[in-house]
């Protein structure tokens, strides 16, 4: 089979249903992305856990940009991602030794306990401990689910099925914003309702992980060849899977003997993985510094900054959550037709231009003693934020999970995906912990700073990112030898296994 040619297999209802269940791991991720920001403007929550911030919020003389600049307060959001970036390395070991299913099961269990503790929290320590457990679940789910989807899906629709993770994430974002809107009206325990409803997606992921099939790649990796062939026949809808099975087996056998920790060493030290290292580290980095997480974590704060009240802020967040869902859903239809690179460039154009407009509005209209934007500018800000999340949701949002999970060689797939999640969570933590401080220090300039990163990403995409559309997962190594730049960096591919 030539490099880039998709296997001739049916797209079965079974594999689509399997991916729908696995992709539900994104529900919890999306819900957690926005739930903290929503409850953090609820007076009942602030007065109980962060009375100093509550006092600043009520102080009309306080600088609009600095009302929420409190490091302990920001730790409520960021602790989730600090735990996730540590947990992802343990998730890599579990995923390689016990399979992708077990990693997803661990994620569900962490989610359930974290939700229970956070909902019952009586003090800040208990609240943050619950967030830490949720972060551990996040690390396991985000390591395992994208890899699972990439390995189970047929190559010609791998992009669309893999992006189900992000579609579910967008559903979680929209659901979290809606829950926050109604929970804000329930006094004094509405914030507990927001945290407690997270138990629903946590339970779904736990149940689904028990009934999913394991991926053929994972089964072969652990020596279960007969079971792997059976699963491959089921998900491809045909008994004629010998060519694909042999490719997977060859990939596994020529890489036998490497432990999971050896996978990390190979990933960073072997020449043939240099392109993967760069892409796997930079794409998640760009996903964070492009500004979407700042919008998601603190979107309600930004709308309050524009002069909206608490209810209007949460209502506006629902609108942006809906835009995210629509954009992510639409991108699943186009990613395997137009390719990853074109979608990224489209998204970069929307993200950079919309953030530049938001920054310009704040620079021109929110200065000195001005406490809210004029109506026209407020509406424009909401529209531009929607344009931004559409650009992100159609491109960098899903592709930052898809590209690393599919572009990695099998021998370093678990390790490499862990690195991708680590980088993602590291910069997610940094953004969550520092954005409100940056907003206080740089004011409107922070939006131009974030917009600039989308321009840098566009240049990186044009020059250095290979197109993975329709390339079978076991043929990814050929991309680097065919690329104008990377072929000089990665060297020749590994020779075939002589045993085979």
From TrEMBL:
Residues 18-469 form the Major facilitator superfamily (MFS) profile domain. Its main location: membrane. It is a multi-pass membrane protein. It is found in: Membrane. It comes from the Eukaryota. PANTHER family: IP12678P (PTHR23500:SF357), SOLUTE CARRIER FAMILY 2, FACILITATED GLUCOSE TRANSPORTER (PTHR23500). This is Major facilitator superfamily (MFS) profile domain-containing protein.
């Amino acid at each position: 089979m030539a490099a880039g040619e998709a296997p001739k297999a049916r797209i079965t209802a079974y594999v689509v249903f399997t991916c729908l269940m696995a992709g539900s791991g994104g529900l919890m991720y999306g819900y957690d992305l926005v739930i903290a920001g929503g409850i953090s403007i609820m007076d009942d929550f602030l007065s109980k856990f962060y009375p100093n911030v509550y006092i600043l919020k009520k102080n009309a003389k306080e600088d609009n940009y600095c009302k929420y600049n409190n490091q302990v307060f920001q730790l409520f959001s960021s602790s989730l991602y600090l735990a996730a970036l540590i947990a992802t390395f343990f998730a890599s070991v579990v995923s390689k030794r016990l399979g992708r299913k077990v990693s997803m099961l661990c994620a569900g269990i962490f989610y359930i306990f974290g939700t229970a503790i956070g909902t019952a929290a009586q003090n800040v320590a208990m609240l943050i401990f619950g967030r830490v457990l949720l972060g551990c679940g996040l690390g396991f789910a985000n390591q395992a689910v994208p890899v699972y989807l990439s390995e189970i899906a047929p190559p010609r629709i791998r992009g669309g099925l893999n992006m189900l993770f992000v579609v579910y994430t967008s559903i979680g974002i929209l659901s979290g914003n809606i829950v926050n809107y109604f929970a804000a009206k329930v006094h004094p325990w509405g914030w507990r309702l927001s945290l407690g409803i997270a138990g629903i997606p946590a339970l779904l992921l736990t149940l689904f992980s028990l009934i999913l099939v394991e991926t053929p790649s994972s089964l072969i990796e652990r020596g279960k060849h007969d079971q792997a062939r059976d699963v491959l026949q089921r998900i491809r809808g045909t008994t004629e899977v010998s060519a694909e099975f042999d490719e997977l087996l060859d990939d596994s056998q020529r890489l036998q003997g490497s432990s999971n920790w050896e996978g990390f060493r190979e990933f960073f030290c072997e020449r043939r993985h240099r392109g993967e290292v760069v892409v796997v580290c930079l794409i998640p980095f760009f996903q964070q510094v492009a500004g979407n997480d700042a919008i998601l974590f603190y979107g309600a704060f930004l709308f309050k900054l524009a002069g909206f009240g608490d209810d209007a802020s949460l209502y506006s967040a629902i609108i942006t959550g809906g835009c995210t869902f629509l954009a992510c859903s639409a991108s699943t239809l186009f990613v395997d037709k137009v390719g990853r690179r074109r979608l990224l460039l489209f998204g970069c154009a929307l993200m950079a231009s919309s953030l530049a407009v938001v920054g310009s509005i704040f620079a021109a209209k929110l200065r000195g003693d001005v406490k809210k934007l004029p109506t026209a500018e407020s509406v424009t800000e909401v529209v531009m934020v929607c344009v931004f999340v559409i650009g992100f949701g159609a491109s960098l949002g899903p592709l930052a999970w898809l590209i690393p999970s599919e572009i990695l060689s099998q021998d370093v797939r678990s390790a490499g995906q862990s690195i991708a999640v680590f980088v993602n969570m590291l910069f997610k933590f940094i953004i969550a912990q520092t954005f409100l401080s940056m907003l206080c220090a740089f004011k409107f300039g922070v939006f131009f700073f974030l917009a600039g990163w989308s321009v840098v990403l566009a240049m990186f995409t044009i020059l250095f990112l290979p197109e993975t559309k329709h390339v079978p997962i076991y043929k990814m190594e050929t991309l680097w030898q065919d690329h104008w730049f990377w072929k000089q960096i990665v060297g020749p591919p590994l020779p075939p296994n002589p045993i085979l």
